[in-house]
Amino acid sequence: MTDTEYAVVDIGSNSLRLMQGIFKKGQWRFYPKRLATTRLAKGLNESGHLSPEGIVNSFAVMEEWNRDLQGIPVCAVATSAVREARDGQAFLAEVRWRFGWHCRIASGAEEGALSFCRGCFNDPCRYGCRRS
Fold first, then answer.
1. Are strands 102-105 and 74-78 parallel, antiparallel or unpaired?
2. Which helix (H) or strand (E) element contains residue 119?
3. CA atoms within 13 Å, Cβ hemisphere of 99
4. How far is CA 86 from the centre of its chain?
5. Could you report the per-residue pLDDT of 89-109, keeping only the tens digit for each?
């Protein structure tokens, strides 16, 4: 069995998260999550565009992470800020061009489901939530 390593970059409104794992001997092993505050959505409600400063901050963080991820498949998943911004598609096109990452925008429903799963994964009960 071949070891397989993957990484996911969560492009959020306020921060970027890097989650990386390796599938080895039938089990996943996850590295510590990395988090960087970039404020991509700052001023989005007023301007309809991603924050220029947030874009610069995001690309600086992604550049650093990309150096560490050479040879590892990366999927970047953008959430509400990129989905709602007039320049969101252009931003993701630039991410693809600069880093060669697979990029996509999560729908609102998918974003909610992923947030729920993340909460359940981090919960001590581990595989779901108890009914009251």
1. parallel
2. helix 108-122
3. 28
4. 19
5. 999 999 999 999 999 887 655
Domain 4-122 in CATH 3.30.420.40? The answer is yes
What's at 57, amino acid-wise?
N
Structure letter (DSSP) for residue 32: P
3-state SS class at 15: strand
pTM of the model: 0.81
Tokens found for residue 69: 């991820």
- The Cα–Cα gap between 26 and 36 comes to 31
Selected residue with higher pLDDT from 87 and 71: 87
pLDDT of residue 3: 78
**Alpha carbons 94 and 98: distance in angstroms, whole number:** 6
